[in-house]
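Weekly structure sync, notes
Attendees: PL (lead), two postdocs, one rotation student
Agenda item 3: pending single-chain targets
PL asked that the sequence for the first pending target be pasted directly into the notes so everyone works from the same version. It is reproduced below exactly as submitted, 336 residues in total.
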Amino acid sequence: MNESKIKEFENIIEKEYPNTCGIAVMKDNKLIYENYYNKCNKENKIHIYSITKSIISILIGIAIDKGYIKNIDENILNFFPDYKVQDNEKTIQNIKLKDIMSMTAPYKFKEEPYVEYFTSDNHLKFCLDFLGGEDKIGLFRYTPVIGPDILSGVISNSTNQSVLDFARENLFKPLGINVDKNIVFNNAKEQFAFYESIDMNGWVCDKTNLNTGGWGLTLSPTDMAKIGQLYLNGGVFNCKKIVSTNWIKESTSIHSEFNKLKYGYLWWVLDKDSFAALGDDGNTIYVNKAKNIVISVTALFVQNAKDRKDLNYHNISLNFNIYLSKTSTYFVDAVI
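Predicted structure, written out during the meeting:
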């Protein structure tokens, strides 16, 4: 590797992106670089925000592979037979699993009711109550929090397991990833402490033990790099097939688009060779098939996080305060 480029990159991270916790890089199926900041090391797990969505996407794919879910075209209400739909509610009856996965499902709010969501004991019912409305199905509408929990409900109801248990058995354990426990918040103070923590290991859930679908999972940079490598390898890790190649292709193909930003099934599609899982504050899993490289980044919550566009591979920033990668062209030049 080009040591001067690496040093230049590290200086930029330290000076301009002080909330960085860790960076891991895999190339040609090998871990070739890792570095840590903010008193972190390879053992520290960080809240990865919306990267949780991409993990949910993998779990949906595994559930389809195993026959728990028929296909992506199933009506969403099929998974919730006990949910009572209001008599005048028509749109929700036509929403399919793929609509929520591609962020093209409509909801009955102009701005997400975050406070009400976070104080709700039953996230699934809360999200289902807001699903539908007057807008058309098929229009891209990114919902960071309200909506993905419906997918957690799909996994739990179709497999008869908690999301965490299903993930442990079918994804985390085969990858050598340890997610310790369910995390439940009793108040806002505990929630913000979780955002700032570097040593909480688990997955947030509501009072019904439903794990969050859009946020709330903690992982390390090497954990995330393994997930990126799994996708780069077509669903194989350590010679074991974990998720089908077909699902990887489907989930990282373009299914919706907004202002030239392309979206698959809970993955951002950057170009024909690269895609990414993205979370607030710079949390990233970046996969480049042409370069055979995976770069993962963990970062702590900060108010008004600096735009990473000067460090992006594609020099793009996404709306909703979600940015691609703290990694830079300096690093690309150094390792390729």
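Discussion points:
- The two ends are 8 Å apart (CA to CA).
- Residues 58 and 106 are 23 Å apart (CA to CA).
Action: rotation student to compare against the earlier draft before next sync.
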